[in-house]
Specification:
- The protein has 403 residues and is α/β, with parallel strands linked by helices.
- It is 28% helix and 27% strand.
- Strands 1, 4, 5, 6, 7, 10, 11 and 12 form an 8-stranded mixed beta sheet that branches. A 5-stranded mixed beta sheet has the order 16-13-19-17-18. It has a two-stranded antiparallel sheet with strand order 2-3.
- The protein starts with a strand and ends in a 15-residue tail after the last strand.
């Protein structure tokens, strides 16, 4: 029997954060938000196991984010949060756990002290949630208000109002029964499910830093919380490949039609090669040839996205976060302007970063030199990466060492 299991809900799409990966898989100082959410739960001595509820489409992203951690096998969530939690709870029935913590995957800063407060209070209650008292004056908007400036309809009394957080702790049998009764409801909070079932749910003090990443501003705030012990490094890369017989070239991961090909041991993608070297340079990890020697037959004709993914993984392994990358292609032909956005999207996908952090440009040498004579293509790249400062073991706020 496991005394306590933590259930992390990660099946949402997080559309308010904008395009790109679901927010729980976005990188925060080099680590997926989901990874930062589950790590303190795994480390807590009173939590025996952790399971994540994921979206049906996210198996690959889940493996990339936390596949190496000692988690219970993930389960697939449903169309609503309530359904996802219920599915997660049903999957824990065979563990015979006495208690369960339900946590949002988008909350990456769970302090040990807060976990202790929740677990301690659960000794005498059916359920416990961390929460913070509302201290700001609350204004109620007019119902027809749909854009700023919003017309005020009145002032809301704030006495007795609290802001709920997670993880929320419950006696497992009681919460499972409550969720079974609430099946199909639109309740977005486990405390609300418990309240509807008549459970005694109490509140303990939460944590101001236990923010939920919902918008870009939340993500920036989370980055600021991690910033005090981070440093930014910038490095560059350069690559050249000559033309050969062929009917197209690979540039920044995109096949571009041309009356020649590019000669190389791999697919000769000068853009990705230069960018790979730039990323390797930020962590002092040598160059592309030291990781993928052209003397090895297995790299013959290999797609260069393998090289770039490897460099990105090495940066992440160092606790790094890619701030931005910039690639300049140097050639007279082919013209690449039509393909530039596709190149940006492909690089962003390969590195797991937002496309606005990727720049791809092209220029000529005014018919001077080997590129001007149309003998080949060159590329130069720059990458900026945020890494833990030398004295730190992780990019964390020193005031919050319990994380």
């Amino acid at each position: 029997m496991v005394e306590c299991v933590a259930l992390v809900v990660a099946a949402g799409r997080g559309s308010r954060l904008g395009p790109g990966q679901p927010k729980q898989y976005r990188l925060l100082a080099g680590q997926a938000i989901l990874r930062r959410a589950v790590t303190p739960l795994l480390a807590h001595p009173r939590i025996g196991a952790v399971r994540v509820v994921i979206h049906a489409d996210d198996a690959q992203a889940y493996q990339a984010a936390v596949g190496d951690l000692p988690l219970l096998a993930p389960v697939t969530g449903g169309a609503t949060r309530q359904e996802s939690v219920l599915r997660g709870l049903e999957s824990l029935a065979d563990t015979q756990t006495a208690r369960v913590l339900v946590h949002d995957a988008a909350r990456p800063f769970v302090a040990v002290e807060m976990l202790d407060r929740v677990l301690d209070a659960l000794d005498d209650s059916d359920g416990v949630i961390p929460a913070l008292p509302v201290v700001d004056t609350l204004k109620r908007a007019r119902k027809d208000a749909d854009a700023a400036p919003v017309v005020i309809a009145g002032t809301q009394e704030r006495t007795g109002l609290w802001r709920a957080q997670t993880p929320q702790g419950f006696r497992f049998p009681a919460l499972l029964a409550a969720h079974r009764t609430a099946a199909g409801s639109a309740l977005t909070d486990d405390a609300a499910v418990g309240e509807a079932a008549g459970l005694r749910v109490v509140m303990v003090l939460g944590d101001e830093d236990n923010l939920k990443v919902t918008t870009e501003e939340d993500l920036r705030r989370a980055e600021r919380l991690l910033a005090p012990r981070c440093e930014t490094r910038t490095a560059s890369g350069f690559d050249v490949h000559r033309f050969c017989d062929g009917d197209g070239v690979m540039l920044c991961g995109i096949s571009v039609p041309h009356d020649h090909g590019l000669l190389g041991h791999s697919d000769a993608d000068v853009g990705l090669h230069a960018l790979t070297d730039a990323l390797l340079g930020t962590i002092g990890a040598g160059d592309i040839g030291s990781h993928f020697p052209p003397s090895e037959a297995r790299w013959r004709g290999a797609p260069s996205d393998v090289f770039l993914r490897h460099a990105g993984a090495l940066v992440a392994a160092e606790g790094g976060r890619i701030v931005n990358v910039d690639v300049t292609l140097i050639c007279e032909r082919p013209k690449v302007g039509h393909f530039r956005e596709a190149m940006r999207q492909r690089i962003a996908e390969l590195l797991g970063i937002a496309v606005h952090r990727v720049s791809v440009k092209a220029t000529t040498t005014e018919e001077l030199g080997f590129t001007g004579r149309r003998e080949g293509i060159a590329a130069q790249a720059t990458a900026s990466v945020e890494l833990p400062a030398p004295a730190a073991t992780d990019c964390v706020n020193p005031a919050r060492s319990s994380r």
